[in-house]
Amino acid sequence: MLSPSECASVLARLEAITNQWAPEGSDQLLQQHIEDARQLASVLRLCVDKDVPLVFL
């Protein structure tokens, strides 16, 4: 489980990483990783905005 403040920390780092990856080319696997990371970032942002923890099942 990640608290909302932990989600905010992970979100900031995840966005920095995906922004760094994005211009690195058109490799299909890399693009899938970027898309997956962006989906996770959306969930993290929602947890921060709603002030709820992220629970992994």
Q: What is shown here, in short?
A:
With 57 residues, the chain is mainly α. It contains 2 helices and no strands.
Structure in words:
The chain has helices at 4-21, 28-50. The mean pLDDT is 91. The chain has two helices and no strands. Helix 1 (4-21) packs antiparallel against helix 2. The protein is mainly alpha-helical.
Characterize the quaternary organization of these chains.
single chain
- The amount of helix comes to over 70%
Percentage of β-strand residues: under 5%
**Largest beta sheet, briefly?**
none
Low-confidence stretches: none
Structural category is mainly alpha
Shape: elongated
Q: What is the rounded Rg?
A: 12 Å
Distance between the termini: 9 Å
- How many DSSP H or I helices? 2
Quantity of strands, as a count = 0
Give helix and strand order, one letter per element, not per position: HH
- What is the residue-mean pLDDT, rounded to a whole number? 91
